[in-house]
Amino acid sequence: MEKERFEALVARAIEDLPSEFRSKLENVDVVVQDWPTPRQLSRVKLSHPSQLLGLYQGVPQTKRGRGYGMVLPDKISIFQKPIEMQCRFDEEIETKIGEVVRHEIAHHFGIDEKTLRRIEGERRARKR
Q: Quick one: 67 exposed, middle or buried, by C-beta within 10 A (0-12, 13-18, 19+)?
């Protein structure tokens, strides 16, 4: 998939967020990268770049105190090539992008990985 189309799907996934979440995104940039860097992989203790679909780097809103300010934006990276490797069709890519964007934005709002995995598992079980 061309990078411009992939980026448009990421932008749409953000626009499709419920307004109560979209309006509370503070000091965060969402970027598309082809692959995670070695540093990004080591941060999450993964060895192969195809294992990481997205990454939140920053200070979650729940951890921001009164002294938080004048800082660089948090960064959410969405990794195009690993997502494409997991999906066969463009529709699957679009669905996966939405899942990854929601997952990483949840980290921005302070939901830890363990809790998020539990929520996602419950959501998948309800769909069956």
A: exposed
- pLDDT per residue over 23-44, tens digit each? 888 889 999 999 999 999 999 9
CA distance 46 to 2: 26
Residue 27 near residue 115 (C-beta atoms within 8 A): no
d(CA 125, CA 74): 32
Q: pLDDT tens digits for 40-91? A: 999 999 989 999 999 999 989 888 888 888 888 999 999 999 999 999 999 9
Dihedral sign from CA coordinates of 79, 88, 99, 16: positive
Residue 126, pLDDT > 90, answer no
Q: Say how many CA atoms lie within 13 Å of 66 toward its Cβ.
A: 0
Could you tell me how many residues make up the chain? 128
Quick one: which of 82, 94, 92, 75 has its CA closest to 6?
94
